[in-house]
């Protein structure tokens, strides 16, 4: 009997990548599976593997078909070879609940010039800005994946009382460190980019650290808590970093 | 040896084959749009295939050399001159001290590559020299080249030195035949595999995608090609979570107009994927100029893999032929 808990579906993403589907939707249990398979995959690389990208409920595995073709003398197609390897690894998956995730505090200066949409979010919910800040900073958020920009965390777990639709017209430029809300999601912009999220505050922390390994402050699996700070602390922190 | 930028042109960046291994952190791959031309330019000057070179877009770039320099120009058919005389493409060139290399305009194709023997002397960041402009890392100070920039090259290796000795005696009379690898035609049939969400599109869109022509708009860049043609729609709306995408992924946003993800694509995307351009056709796609028209043709995964094997074997054969030219008497 197959163990359905450790089932996966594999679909090609073109001729040089596959998507390993481990479930549907956004769910901490599926996230555990993604995490487990990521760890197994980093310990069981194969010739021709380029890299892999974990997402909410799947992992995309990138490979070089020509290297695989040469390494196994073309008995299987490269797609079949990679799929077979991954299916074997999926069987080794374990869900380890004993390992505690990293807890990371993100200082945020809410409102004012750092959070130009804070009042809009408060008005949308008929709340005071203080209430929005309190609810946002009381949520514990899980980083499901990084994507969109280097170090940008896709998080779940924000209190739905402050979920707010995206802006109708995206801003052309959002400052690095900006903390935003889009629907049920909250996130932090690591680089200056265009974006449509409601910006409620800004952190002085750098999320993208190109000369460090790993190059990002946050990793998939981290638990985030936002800590409100006054603008004087924000400026002091920025001054210290210079 | 150093190279002075007299004119930056439209967009000139340093690119290698890409920054792999950090996509899980959201760090994009970047790298040459047309990787075959980049790799062949390197092979022509005795470099490793994955060394960094200049990627020149459409027109305007002008460079001056402060010493004799071994280089090769590949990619699109640009009107290119050295001190006013037409330069030879797809072969090694020993350019003389103080000479001026100028890219006037693209006749066919949209990107030219210039590789220098030894490679470009810039640090690798996360394993690559490719320019990632938005994050301001890699390449030359993390940005496109500007007038007045001075690039340095690294020491020339054994193959490069041997080649320099030969070229001092006489210019190369041979060049690389790229015709089996890259097409520079204006209108192309681009081979694709069905995308992971192909079946979520309505019947009419599934047919139109393969039957109607799509134009590459001027809003296309290294990040993505925005196409214009018959709009495509889903049979019913559904929410797709962000997940890994790749070079050549054809996404359909709510406008219904396809976007093909290119070298500077984001690591993840949440739009439905109707198709995926096969790896073997990416360099030809990357060479198309804005306003060109493409049609999509479906192939099987086996055909796509075979096209990769054939092309990689061709590059290997070209590499051997170049070595033969350099080392034979």
Key traits:
heterodimer; A: 242 residues; Cyclophilin; 2 domains; seven-stranded mixed β-sheet; four-stranded antiparallel β-sheet; 6 helices; 13 strands; 28% strand; B: 329 residues; alpha+beta; nine-stranded antiparallel β-sheet; seven-stranded mixed barrel; PxpC (chain B); hydrolase (chain B); CT_A_B (chain B); Cyclophilin-like_dom_sf (chain B); ATP-binding (chain B)
Can you lay out the helices and strands and say which pair or pack?
The complex is a heterodimer of chains A (242) and B (329).
Chain A: E1 9-12, E2 17-21, H1 28-43, E3 49-54, E4 58-63, H2 65-71, H3 78-91, E5 103-110, H4 118-124, H5 129-138, E6 140-146, E7 153-156, E8 171-174, E9 178-182, E10 185-188, E11 193-195, E12 198-202, E13 223-228, H6 231-241
Helix pairs in contact in A: 2-3
Chain B: E1 2-7, E2 12-15, H1 35-44, E3 53-57, E4 62-65, E5 69-82, E6 85-86, E7 92-95, E8 100-116, E9 150-152, H2 158-169, E10 187-194, H3 203-211, E11 214-216, E12 224-228, E13 243-244, E14 249-251, E15 259-261, E16 268-269, E17 273-277, H4 282-286, E18 293-298, H5 301-327
Parallel strand pairs in B: 10-18
Antiparallel strand pairs in B: 1-4, 1-9, 2-3, 3-8, 4-8, 5-6, 5-7, 5-8, 10-17, 11-12, 11-18, 12-15, 13-16, 14-15, 14-17
Helix pairs in contact in B: 1-5
The radius of gyration over CA of chain B amounts to 20 Å
Q: Please report the two chains with the greatest interface, counting residues with C-beta closer than 8 angstroms to the partner's C-beta.
A: A-B, 48 and 39 residues
- Net shape of chain A: elongated
* Sheet with the most strands: spatial strand order of chain A: 7-6-13-5-12-9-10
Structurally, the number of domains of chain B stands at 2
Which secondary-structure class do the elements of chain B indicate? alpha+beta
């Amino acid at each position: 009997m197959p163990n359905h808990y450790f089932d996966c579906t594999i679909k090609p993403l073109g001729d040089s990548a596959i998507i390993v589907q481990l479930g549907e939707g956004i769910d901490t249990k599926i996230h555990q599976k993604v995490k487990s398979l990521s760890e197994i995959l980093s310990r069981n690389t194969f010739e021709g593997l380029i890299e892999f990208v974990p997402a909410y409920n799947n992992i995309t595995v990138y490979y070089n078909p020509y290297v695989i073709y040469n390494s196994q003398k073309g008995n299987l197609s490269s797609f079949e070879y990679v799929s077979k390897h991954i299916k074997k690894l999926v069987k080794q998956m374990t869900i380890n609940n004993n390992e505690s995730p990293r807890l990371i505090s993100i200082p945020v200066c809410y409102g004012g010039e750092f959070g130009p949409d804070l009042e809009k979010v408060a008005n949308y919910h008929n709340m005071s800005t203080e209430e929005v800040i309190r609810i946002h900073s009381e949520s514990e958020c899980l980083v499901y994946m990084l994507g969109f920009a280097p170090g940008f965390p896709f998080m779940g777990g924000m209190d739905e009382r402050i979920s707010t639709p995206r802006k109708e017209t995206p801003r052309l430029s959002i400052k690095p460190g900006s903390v935003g809300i889009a629907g049920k999601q909250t996130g932090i912009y690591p680089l200056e980019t265009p974006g449509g999220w409601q910006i409620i505050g800004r952190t002085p922390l750098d999320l993208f650290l190109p000369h460090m390994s790993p190059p990002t402050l946050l990793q998939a699996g981290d638990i985030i808590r936002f800590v409100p700070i006054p603008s004087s602390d924000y400026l002091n922190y920025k001054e210290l970093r210079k | 040896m150093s190279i002075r930028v007299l004119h930056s042109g439209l967009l000139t960046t340093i690119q290698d084959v890409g920054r792999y291994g950090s996509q899980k952190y959201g760090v994009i791959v970047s790298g040459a749009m047309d990787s075959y031309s980049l790799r062949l330019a390197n092979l022509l000057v005795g470099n490793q295939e994955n060394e960094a070179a200049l990627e020149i877009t459409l027109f305007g770039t002008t460079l001056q050399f402060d010493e004799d320099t071994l280089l090769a120009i590949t990619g699109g058919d640009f009107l290119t001159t050295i001190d006013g005389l037409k330069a030879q493409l797809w072969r090694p060139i020993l350019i003389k001290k103080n000479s001026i290399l100028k890219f006037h305009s693209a006749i066919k194709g949209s990107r030219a590559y210039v590789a220098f023997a030894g490679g470009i002397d810039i640090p690798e960041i996360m394993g690559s020299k490719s320019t990632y402009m938005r994050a301001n890392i890699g390449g030359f100070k993390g940005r496109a080249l500007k007038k007045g920039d001075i690039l340095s090259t690294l020491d020339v290796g054994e193959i490069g030195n041997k080649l320099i000795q030969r070229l001092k005696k006489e210019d190369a009379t041979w060049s690389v035949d790229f015709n089996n690898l890259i097409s520079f035609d204006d209108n192309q049939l681009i081979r694709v595999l069905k995308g992971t969400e192909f079946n979520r599109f309505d019947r009419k869109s599934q047919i139109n995608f393969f039957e109607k022509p799509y134009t590459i708009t001027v809003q296309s860049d290294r990040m993505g090609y925005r196409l214009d043609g018959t709009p495509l729609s889903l049979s019913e709306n559904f929410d797709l979570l962000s997940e890994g995408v790749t070079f050549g992924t054809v996404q359909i946003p709510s406008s219904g107009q396809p976007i093909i993800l290119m070298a500077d694509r984001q690591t993840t995307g949440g739009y439905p994927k109707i198709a995926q351009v096969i790896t073997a056709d990416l360099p030809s796609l990357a060479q198309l100029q804005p306003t060109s028209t493409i049609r999509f043709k479906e192939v099987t995964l086996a055909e796509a893999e075979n096209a990769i094997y054939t092309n990689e074997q061709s590059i290997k054969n070209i590499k051997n032929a170049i070595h033969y030219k350099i080392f034979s008497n």
